[in-house]
Every structure is written in C-alpha cells, then in structure tokens.
Amino acid sequence: MTLLLLALLQSPAASLGFEPGTDSMLADWKQVSSYVNRLAQRNPYVHVDTLGRTTEGRPFLLLTITSPANQARLTAIKRGQKLLADPRALSDAVLAGLRSTQPAVILISNNIHSTEIASSQMGMTLAYRLATEPALTHLLDSLVVLMIPSMNPDGLDTVVSWYRRYKGTAYEGGPLPWLYHKYVGHDNNRDWFMVTQAETRLVTRMLYTEWFPEVIYDVHQMGANGVRLFVPPFSDPVNPNLDPALVAGINLVGAQMASALYDAGATGVAHQERYDLWWHGGFRSTPTRHNMIGVLTEAASVRIASPITLPLDSVRQPTLGVNYPGPWPGGTWRLGDIVRYELVASEALIRLAARDRLTFIDRFVGLGRREIEAGRAGHPFAYVLPPPPVQRDPEAWAALANVLLTGSVEVWRAAESFTAGTHTYPAGSLVVPMAQPYRAHAKDLLEVQHYTPVNDRPPYDVAGWTLPFTMGVRADVVEEPFTANLVKVDSVVPVPGRIEGTGEMFVLRNRTNGEARAVATLLAAGQSVTVAGDSLIVRGPRARRILGEQAALHGFTVTAVPVAAVSGKTLRQLPRIALYQPWTGNIDEGWTRWVFEQYGISYTTVHDSDLQSGRLRQRFDVIVLPNESVRGLLQGVDSTRIPVQYAGGMGETGANAVSEFVRGGGTLVCLDGSSNFAISRLNLPVVNILGGEASGPQVSRFYAPGSIFGVALGGGRGWGVPGHRRGARLPGDLLREQRRLHRLGHGPSAGHVPRGAPALRVRALSGAARGQSGAGRGARRQRSGDPVRDAAAVPGPNARHLQAAL
Fold it and tell me: Which of 198, 252, 610, 636 is most buried per CB count within 10 Å?
C-alpha cells in the first residue's frame, strides 16, 4: 500500500491536477519540466540532464530512463555506444563483452512541431509508467530510454499560451498569427544536416558525440481528417544510401507498433502513406544516415486540445487492405486518443528493443561495418575539397566542411600535395574519405541526387539537397583509392584574408558571403561603399581597420589603391529596411529575419497596420515581402478563424501604400510567391507563364519540386560546377522563382507602365537568394534556377547571386 501511494504521488495527474490528454487541458513547459524534474528527484529510474538553452533561453531537457544499476554506470554505457557506432576500434573480444552487458539505447523525441502537442503531454505519462509499473521497469535492465519531453520548449509555451487565451471563444484551437519557433517555425524539422538553430545543435551533439542510440522515434501529428495514425513502412522511393537492413529494421518497428495498436483495439492505423524514405534533413531521416533506425509516427490532430467530430463520410481514408486493415469508423477524436495511440506505439518499441537487445546491437554494428567496407571499395573512395583560391568563397568552403564535422563525419587536411585520380591537389585540401561509419551522411550531402517519381507522386519533401551546389563549393569525387599525407581536423576556418596594395581606397570583388557581411559592418559604421560594375569601392576613415578585421575573419582579399574618382551609386549607411511580417506565421519571414541577423543587417518588422498607415517612403528605403500568395498578402487569415486584430492581411489600403512607396523611389524586394503581388499591383512588364490559363498542362511540363537548378543567361554561358554539364539555355528571357516562371513581356499582354512613370525598383529573388550558406531558408527552400527537369545535373555556383532586377 505504501509503495502504491508513493507511485500515485509521482503521477502526472497528482502534479498537474489533471490527467495528460484531458480535453482542453494542457501543461506548459514550466509544468512539464517541473514534473519530470520532480520525478527524477523521487525515482531512481529517471535522470534529467539540461543539454543547454533554447533559442529564447529555456532549459532544454533530456530524460534518461533505465534501471538503477544502469544509472550507476551511464558513463560506461555511453563509452560502449561510441564503440558500437564506430566498429573500426571494436575488437571481437570487446564486442563480445558489450553484447553481454550493454543495454540497447533508444531515443523518443516529442513535440518538435509545437501545435502537434499531444506528445509533450504523453511523455510525462510514459516516463511515469516506465519508472513505476513493474511490467515496464523490469525491461530497463536491458534498455536505456532517452526522452526529449519537448524539442521546442519555446514553441510549447507559445501554443499553450495562445490556446488558453482563446479557449471558450470562437477562436479556440485556431491558427497562431506568429511562428512557434522564433525564426524557423515548422522548419525546425528541416535543419538536421545544416544545424543552424540552437535546439538542433544541442540534439545533434548529444546524438553523435555522446549517446549514439540504435533507434530514433520521432512523434508527430498531421491533418485531422485522414487516417488516425501513420506508422512505417514508409512509401517509396528509398534513398539509395540506406542499407536494406536499416529499411527492414524500420519496417519491423512499424509493424510491431501497428500490431500492438490493433491488439489494444485501435483502428485507423496505416502504413505507406505519403511519407517516404528519400529525403535527408528531418529528425527521423538524418539519423538513418548514421546507421540508426529512424521511425516516424503521424497522428491525426484535433484543434490543439479541443475534440473534433468527423462523420465517416468526411474522413479521407485508404481502402481496406494490407496497409490499412482496420478503417476508423468516424466519430469524436480527442487529445486523449492521440496520447493513447502514442503511448501504445512507444511502449511497443520499448518492449521490442528490450526483448531483441542483441539484434539491435548487432544490426547497429553491422551497418557501420558495411559502410566502412563500401567506402574502402571505392566508387566513391573519397571527396576532395581543394582549398582557396580554387574555391570562389573561402568561408563557404570552410562552412561546408564544418557542416560535415557537426554531423560527426571525419574530415582530413592534406599536409602536402597529392594526386588522386587525374588531379593533383595542393596541401591544405580537405579530404572526406568514404571508409567511415557515417559514409551515408557524407555521401548523401556531397553527391548529386537523381529523384525518380513513383506513380507520378511528388516527393514528400525536397528532391535534391547537394551541398556543393547550394553552397557554391567545388567538391571533387574520387572513385579509386589513393595515398596522401592527411591530418584529421576538428574544425575548419578559412585562411585569413588580407589587404593587398597601398592606398586608402579599397576594392572588393564582391564574390563572397564574407564581403557581404563586411559591407553591412562598413555601412553601419558610416563608411562609403560605391557599386562600380561587379566590384565595390570602399572609402572612409575606418575602412582599413574594418576591412582588415573582416578579411582576416572571413578569408577574402581586399585590394588597396590610391584614392581616385569613381562612378556608380554610393551608400554611406545601411538602407532603412522594413521586413513585412504577415499575421500568418510565415516561415519565409522568419528565415529572412535570421539571415539578416547573421549578416548584421538592421531591419524593422512591419505589420499590416504599419503598411496601412502610409508614408512608407518617409520611413524606409527598402520593403521586403516574404514568400506569400497575393491572396495571402491582401486578405491574410479570415476573422472567423483568428481574432480581428490579426485578420485581413494588408488589404487594398496597404497594397496601395506599397505601390506608392515604389513609385516614390523606394525599393521593393519580393521573395518567391510575393513576386506575383509586384507583377499584378505595379503593372510590371512581366508575365507568370504558369499563372491563370497557362497553368494547365504547363504545370507538369515544368514540374520539378524541391530541386536544384543552374542558370544560363544571355549568350548561353551557364553557371555550373567544374566537372558537370552546364544548364540548358532558357527559352527567351525567363526568370524562375521556386514554382513560378516569369517572362519579361513585350506588348499589351505584359502589362502597361504609363509613359513618363518613374523607373520602378523591384527585385524578385528566388528562395536560394538568401540561403547563402545553403541553410538560410531550410533545406526545402534552397531551390533556384531554370525549368530543366534533370535538376540534379545542373548546379549553380553561388546561390546568393541568383537574383534578377526587373
């Protein structure tokens, strides 16, 4: 009785005052973190670590749940996992010892997408059950369960606060007017190889340098009116870098989950829905390139925590079959149903991993060994990143290497020149050998993707992500073995640049991202920058010091020349930039904010009311519109779905004010879809040839989602990477932004600009124009170039130059 009472006192309900999953009741991050910390204080099966701080400064927690005996030897268990992850240092005797003593290790990740909130509540109940129920605690001798209560604590608080604020009103469970991650919103699950955000960095370090789990379970939700839960197997296609045993392991876990759910009386569990095994970049997919089984479930959502009722005829379900043997009958669906399904799936994984501990360990070791053997066999044997000055941008060269290192890929530096294949490379070249455990991760990021549609279905996410293309870095593939004197590196920095020549006028070639950062610093300090053709001319009393510091930091070269007269537009301060933030939780706006801050570019966030107040030219020099449809910009979210202060978009008043701003000499920068706003509102001589009546058969003709393109301009000289064929010439004067094709028009069909009207200053940028390091807008937004279907074979040299002034 005493033990039962103690267990009840440790329950989530005793702490929260309600059972997790109760209709319309949610625990925020303070409640969740307080509960798991108290549980750890009272229960020997639970340990809590703070991995670091979130973007907004909240503690980011990791639970370690295992037997007290295992808790006492966590350091040894971590050391054993590291050996299993890299079999090169694993002798047969050491492996035999680990097989007899090492528990399996799994990680359950909750609530990366904050509106998919059920798992943040479920995790508390799961931790409690694991720590108190004998049927589960006895499994923990053979298993370590790592659990992240919320992958985005900032967003959890954002969503819970909004839900509580409008609970009981017409807006209960409605959309948020802002992002649930400060910068990237939903794209926090698109950051797992570029690793740009604080939370991604914390988890990546834990995964690949500390714990090395055999299984990752990523718990998600999806739309409300389809199947009740997706579990693997995934849909085709399968990425060719995934070992068949890994795919089989994923399928095994999914089948075990489905079996447990049907045993528990659940319905609506589906396999092979739209989620595929192609894409690299999500939390369940990047670990698969590290030999970890990556499992995703997607539960049907409710209105945050409020129940919904769906008649059977409104539910979009597959037909009865082997991938969907138990259709959901329709009815009321609650937060508690999601929690229940997720608990059953989680406990099924826990039982499987504990029961088949040796199978999971042996598979993990075998996957690593096969990756190493495949790399030694060659085809490819290695990638070589020759050093600057071969590289256009020394900082991008270093950044690509550091992306690989962050993912625990081994990178080596040549101590002296060497020959590989038909090329001789200088000392300082970076070598990425394929004979390493995380070969799949390195190869998948460096090679060209060739996506083949299955049954004409689009890919679930992007089709291509080749980093040498998106970052403008030369990376040569070497097929056969070679010898070289190499030194392993932990990080890469560009060789410090310098100022060459004499004089107090400075010339920048304007070819690197570092120069863009330097220009922002110079203008912020009041120095003058003149655009002279492709170059930039810098003058000012502080110019030498600033440029010396920036060149040394970012690796570019500055040429000093005697002061002379120069022609061109001169700036002496940063333009006054307004970044429009619609009340729609716009991810593109968040990424743009992040990029501005990385580059030291000051900006002012403006909303609908700011535009509607007019006099924009008096306050700003530049207005940036993020990717959004014309309808979204003008109308926003309807007032039946969101409180009136956030509804309605910029409206006609705001749109007219933007037009007046441009005609008054202001510069309007339109990103992706907002280009159509400029075309329609400013009567630009540009036609979206896939818009309106032209959008029928031409949509499939130009269909290439999530792909990387090169561009051929003017006389047919294509941008490209040495060793790959150039892009095809464009038919006429075409400009493509993500999914739009624009023709510079002639005649009445192209729109009319009144005679004598001032020149309009409009720029339409593709998504890649800001993603200068390949990460600026998340992997799925790094798309640019022309409508060539074979996207993967047509690279672009530097995404930041993919812009066109209209």
Answer: 636
